């Protein structure tokens, strides 16, 4: 026996015959079997299968179990199989014509642990290409996994793969029981352990998206179970690959972290309120460790103590109403400068309660360092009542020096960058006008450079970059990126112009001339650039 098709089934009377016949109708003499494991169906599924069994007794093998879930059904299918290769097919999907012909050409005299075919998502939506992973002749499992992760596509599905049965059994790679998203957990581990994988350029699998399938159910109870299973499985994957993939752990772990973040943004408010924040916090800590994001304690002491105090006070005041506390402001990003960097907190609550908000505001007013707080209810975030600039800062968490999610999770949806660009394009003349007035005032006074002036200077430069679609954070990053562009466009000599923002911030009095010179260059440059907008 060469191929074993394993089909777990449950109440699939509408689709099961089409699924089975998509295999049987293939024009091939290759020996194969179809193993159907019925997970306790209560509709006409069993009757339909028995009728097909009478017609094709040499091909179909039917087993029925009490309802235990798809994981056990697939595992039992593996144990019952006799083929050299096993192929999982969901009962409401199909395989393409010429599946056997194409597969035989790939295998030939080669020996692969895993073969990947292309997936066609049968659904009229723009994201039909979400399964389009890279095509390659032959790679080790870990290299193939890295390439799949790098594509940022969905690949952790049991279907669309052909697995060497001996490899699966020897490595004891079975689906985890009593969990949903069991394939998301297992498939990456299978790939990482494979000695050889090939990814083909032909479509082998038809994934037919159906509104009422379990994977698209909108029931809050089921969705809460599913999202918490997804979070738990992400935690297991990140732990596993951090430990076992060495140099590749960074890219692999970030793929699953990012996949989880995307998943969370698509669940509704009631489900988000019941997510497992404890496991989310554990995931954040591992990711921070992998990407060398420093601990709050490594910030200047004034900031570290203030942030920790604010976090603890928010937990006391808001209690179970607290969804997340997210760090913003320049002190959370690169190179916080004592006295110049701001501390901003974004506090997300299940519901906005004025009494508690007033109480917390009165507490933080007594801190030694000023701290700005913005409150959002989760409903406001779900309805997108938040400016895109804030979302850019909070969503692009990798730009921070410390992990900005101090508690809970970051619930912000992806940003519409087009709106940000358009907003700053309209806003740039106003920012330029304001800064020019401050510049003239500084020229005619004996005062040293103040915080407000530097902030407006940086805002002008950032506004220019935002229009270009480049979003920067931190004093030094903004200035360095500007100097790169400036020296390319403006400097005629071989000597590049340099401006040390960090020295300026530490000694505003003696660096006034340098600041004025730099301001003049920024003004001239941006005025010229505005002619192109």
Write a structural description.
The chain is of the alpha/beta class. Helix content is 48%, strand content 14%. The chain is built from 20 helices and 13 strands. Strands 1, 2, 3, 4, 5, 6, 7, 8 and 9 form a 9-stranded mixed sheet that branches. α1 links the parallel β1 (3-9) and β2 (32-38). α8 runs parallel beside α11 (277-290). It is elongated, with a radius of gyration of 29 Å. The N and C termini lie far apart (67 Å). The relative contact order is 0.06.
Summary keywords:
single chain, 533 residues, alpha/beta, nine-stranded mixed β-sheet, four-stranded mixed β-sheet, 14% strand, elongated
Write the layout of secondary structure elements.
Elements: E1 3-9, H1 16-24, E2 32-38, H2 45-55, E3 60-64, H3 70-80, E4 85-88, E5 94-95, H4 99-107, E6 114-122, E7 136-139, H5 141-151, E8 161-164, H6 165-170, H7 182-193, E9 197-208, H8 220-244, H9 249-265, H10 269-272, H11 277-290, H12 301-318, E10 322-328, E11 344-349, H13 354-364, E12 372-377, H14 378-382, H15 388-395, E13 405-407, H16 417-443, H17 451-467, H18 475-489, H19 501-506, H20 512-530
Parallel strand pairs: 1-2, 1-4, 2-3, 6-9, 11-12
Antiparallel strand pairs: 4-8, 5-9, 6-8, 7-9, 10-11, 10-13
Helix pairs in contact: 5-7, 5-9, 7-8, 8-9, 8-11, 12-13, 16-17, 16-20, 17-18
